[in-house]
Amino acid sequence: MHEALNGDRRHLFGNLRRSLQKIWRREDEAGAELVMKILYLLLTLSTIPLAAVGQIQFDKATAISASDQIYPVLEARKAEMQKPYKATDYALTRFSSWIRVDSPATTRLFPKLRFASIGWGEYRNPSVKPLPAHDLGMGMELTVAVDTEQMKIVSELSNTPDQPEFGQLLAFGKVRIANKSDAEVVWNVFCTLTHLHWENDPTEKVSETEWHLGNSYHDGLHYYYEILLDENHFVQSGALRTSEVKKP
Q1: What does the pLDDT look like over 146-163, one tens digit per residue?
Q2: Cα(first)–Cα(last) distance of the chain, in Å?
């Protein structure tokens, strides 16, 4: 049952963005806005919680305050993100607060880094007439890693389909996977940084230089995060993969 639900989540939300973009291009402006609102409402009321598929959980307890030492670094990054919008008037944006993202596993793998996430959405600018046909983004997220010694961002993870940035972060941190316990810690960190609740999905050693993390099977498809290692078991790269299940 657990694997089936996880497969449903990955299948549904992996294709949701593409589906919304197709709907947007087919519908008129008012129709597209209505469709997106209805879809969001259905997702909110569905039995599959949004938190289980990667939605940042914002609350005051995890918000990073202006007095925090990494706050200026984060706000500088947000200012960079806002520049393209200020250069054109086709869309308005709403950004959330920065929130703290951490766990015992993230501290174990990256003791000198602190992680923070921010979310934002794009909205029609009512002062622009006629309204342009640009696609607008919703539910966009970014997680950054701040080096607390150099006080700069050294890695960024966005909600891209394959999540190769996580593999790059592991390589940057010289993370080593020598056994199943190491693999489970790495998978836990992935779930923490991407706000996904897939921690219980199993890991599998494919070879001395390859691991599959977060294995899930659904509708004849195999979902997993592929980790490639060097001969000393240090991570070289990683990416989310989907493959067809081989029939016996």
Answers
A1: 999 999 999 999 877 789
A2: 22
